[in-house]
Amino acid sequence: MLMAKMQSDFFRDVYEVVRLIPQGRVSSYGAIARYLGSSRGSRMVGYAMNAAHHQIPYVPAHRVLNRNGMLTGKHHFGDPDAMQKLLELEGIQVESDVVVNFEVLFWDPNIELKID
DNA sequence: CGATTGACGTACG
DNA sequence: TCGTACGCCAATC
User: For the purposes of burial, counting CB atoms within 10 Å of the CB of A32, is it exposed (0-12), middle (13-18) or buried (19 or more)?
Assistant: First the structure.
């Protein structure tokens, strides 16, 4: 029975945090990784996103960008324009594969989910 | 089992 | 300021 633990707990936690990202807001791989305790595991977050497509419920991976606010993973959405389109549907302006006002729309779990 | 890769980030020149 | 090098850790070859 237990077909759980298909991925590491780290991955599962990544999905959970990504789902907590409000609509119209974005976050970064590094911020999530840091929130989970692996400040240098940013690559793992990106790798987790790679598998996020078959995760249920839906994981808004398009809200996760790199520290530069660039849509680095847009090529992994099937269509290169899909990620930008999803962001625009949430009212996020994207220009040259970069989110406009990224620092304003930036949603940092270390702050929003901060444990007192 | 070892080498390479990867949706990143930081350090260094 | 920009380009290159390296580290992180899991997955793939």
Answer: buried
